[in-house]
Amino acid sequence: MRRRIATPSPVALPPLWRVLALAFGLLLAGAFGVARAEESPDGPPKYLGVVTCAGSTCHGAGHPVGDARINQTEFLTWHREDAHAKAYRVLLEDKGKRIAQNLGLGDAASAPECLACHATFVSADVRGKRFQLSDGVGCESCHGPASKWLGQHVTGEASREDNIKAGMYRTEEPVSRAALCLSCHLGNQDKFANHRLMGAGHPRLSFELDTYTLLQPAHYRVDADYRARKQVAPHVQVWAVGQAAAALRTFELFTSEKWQGKSVLPEFAFFDCHACHHVVSEPRWAPRATTGLPPGVPRVNDAHVLMLLYLAKAIAPDLATQLHDGLLALHKASLDSREATLGAARGLSELVKKVQGKILAHTFSVDETRAMLDSIVAGGVAGDYRDYAAAEQAAMAVHALTDSLAEAKALDDARSKTLAQQIKVLYEVLQDQNAYQPARFSGEMQNLASALK
Ligand code: HEC
Ligand code: HEC
Ligand code: HEC
Ligand code: HEC
Question: Is the residue at 208 inside a domain?
Fold first, then answer.
């Protein structure tokens, strides 16, 4: 996995002409003017383009502005450090071109199949005059179309709620944020990275809301003023909400005719990649209690459900028993028939909704957070994360829950240090997905269990 938590790799700077064009555009039309010119009260909100946000007195300052509530350098952070700023550019590079060619899509940078996730890909009628697909995943991909809120937002008088009413997206709230990020990092009814895309050379996708929020170079600072304006969910809540959302979205796509298809073979992207893709000269199969499957069978990727199972073990034992049975039923059905498998997935999805209901109505205490951490680590000791995708989720869960305990000041310095060191080791074991050794991961989970005692 490509975890770059401590040192986000700098994104190559764009050609000089592009920066100059941006700056020039800003001189010509201040954000306020653009908003007024493009506003049509009755029409749908429009996407105005990154240039509209990047004015030097708005979000395009070169240095944080001393007494301002926000950094005002959001544009530079995004532009220089954030992978989203180069999401379109990779479509022009060899690796992007090759994937599209392999799929017979022609030019990647004009293929809707790629632009859907690599740009703010909205229909032509809602693109403002300065909108450019080449901005990649820009401000409005996440913050929503600006035409109806830009004016009131520039004056600084509008409240968060006023802006949200005018189409700004509720990025700080975990349920909304999960839906937003998952639309591209997992997929939705309109877009999905299926196994053909993988076969053509696309990287495997994985996502955990809390960790990926940390991984995105922060263009905002969570200080006292921020907390006064916005609700800040603790890491544990962000993690739990994200797991439930990802599990439900996976089942939704898994059971949809559009993405599952009707072919004699199921859609491989819903299975654990490394169940099929690993070296055959080193057999490594061992039983896993939560599948009940014999050797030689690909496993449905159940990483998010496993996390919810361990979450439920700590806070809702009844639901945990049901989830465990549901998981076994799903894996068993996969040996049976397509209909049985889809039926079991729908059943499990209903159960996950119950867990989600519990999570949304819950405030996790320090004791519960600690219990979930212990429970997830116990799963590792029991060998439940033999599949790479599950091990990845377990490592990120340990990270998120430890951060949450630290945030609540429930860990002393020495303990924090030991745990941080051990999380680093977990990430190291996962560094190369092709060389993943389940037994080693399980051993490191055992070490973590000792460190937590
Ligand atoms: C469902 C959304 C989705 C679709 C559709 C999609 N991508 Fe991606 N793509 C992503 C995400 C998300 C990443 C980043 C994955 C990560 O690092 O976790 C990515 C990463 C990539 C990368 C690697 C980027 C890098 O910096 O190394 C390339 C190249 C790429 N995509 C090309 C394409 C091409 C070409 C198409 C169309 C054939 C396409 N993608 C379609 C979501 C998508
Ligand atoms: C991939 C999604 C994403 C993109 C792209 C993105 N942001 Fe954000 N932005 C977030 C998230 C998540 C937060 C934190 C939650 C929040 O405060 O709403 C945030 C927060 C902010 C804040 C709030 C700061 C505060 O103190 O309230 C500003 C301002 C902002 N972004 C501006 C921008 C600008 C300008 C761009 C484009 C240059 C941009 N963002 C691009 C996701 C994104
Ligand atoms: C419109 C689609 C889209 C949305 C929405 C989106 N992303 Fe992304 N994200 C991408 C693509 C595409 C890439 C890969 C870009 C590249 O490397 O060229 C990416 C890359 C990333 C990366 C870098 C991954 C790596 O391996 O280095 C992080 C972290 C990330 N996204 C977090 C988030 C978070 C958090 C959210 C929600 C707040 C979010 N993204 C919303 C499309 C999206
Ligand atoms: C059920 C087994 C199975 C699963 C699960 C599976 N694949 Fe595959 N994969 C295959 C087969 C079969 C091929 C075709 C091999 C060939 O053409 O030689 C393939 C081809 C590929 C290729 C192209 C390899 C090449 O050099 O041609 C990539 C990359 C790939 N898969 C990635 C993935 C990823 C990522 C996942 C998980 C999201 C995944 N696969 C899940 C069976 C699987």
Answer: no
Q: How far apart are CA 273 and CA 24, in angstroms?
A: 47
414 falls within a domain: yes
For 25, half-sphere exposure in the C-beta direction (CA atoms, 13 angstrom radius) is 21
Task: Domain of residue 34: give its range.
Answer: 1-169
CA atoms of 198 and 408, how far apart (whole Å): 40
Residue entry with tokens 């997935």: 345
Q: Which residues of 90-121 are buried (b: 16+ CB within 10 A; e: fewer)?
A: bbeeeebbebbeebebeebbebebbbbbbbbb
Q: Identify whether the C-beta of residue 213 lies closer than 8 Å to the C-beta of residue 238.
A: yes
**330 lies in a domain?**
yes
CATH number of the domain residue 305 falls in: 1.20.1420
Mutate to test the pocket of ligand 4, among 268, 274, 279, 297 (most ligand atoms within 8 A of CB): 268
Q: Are residues 4 and 120 in the same domain?
A: yes
Total number of domains in the chain: 2
Average pLDDT, the chain: 90
Ligand 1 pocket test: which of 202, 211, 249, 273 has the largest number of ligand atoms within 8 Å of its C-beta? 202
pTM equals 0.94
CA distance 83 to 9: 9
Q: In degrees, to the nearest 5, what angle opens at C-alpha 262 toward C-alphas 258 and 263?
A: 120
Mark whether 264 and 115 lie in a shared domain.
no
Which ligand 1 atom is at minimum distance from the Cα of 100? 38
pLDDT digits (tens, 9 = 90+) for 129-138: 999 999 999 9
What is the per-residue DSSP string for 152-183? HHHHT-S-HHHHHHTT---TTSHHHHHHHHHH
Q: Are residues 268 and 124 in the same domain?
A: no
Handedness of CA 302, 303, 308, 310 (dihedral sign): positive
Using pLDDT thresholds of 50, 70 and 90, give the confidence band for residue 151. Answer: confident
The answer, yes or no, to whether any atom of ligand 4 lies below 6 A from the CB of 271, is yes
- Per the structure block, which two tokens stand in for 336? 């049976």
Summarised one tens digit per residue, pLDDT across range 19-35 is 433 443 443 344 444 45
Specify whether 157 is located in the same domain as 77. Answer: yes
What angle, rounded to 10 degrees, do the helices at 366-381 and 388-407 form?
A: 150
% helix, strand, coil for the chain, step of 5: 60, 0, 40
91: Cβ below 6 Å to ligand 1?
yes
Tell me the C-alpha distance between 224 and 238, whole Å: 20
Residue 287 sits in the same domain as residue 433: yes
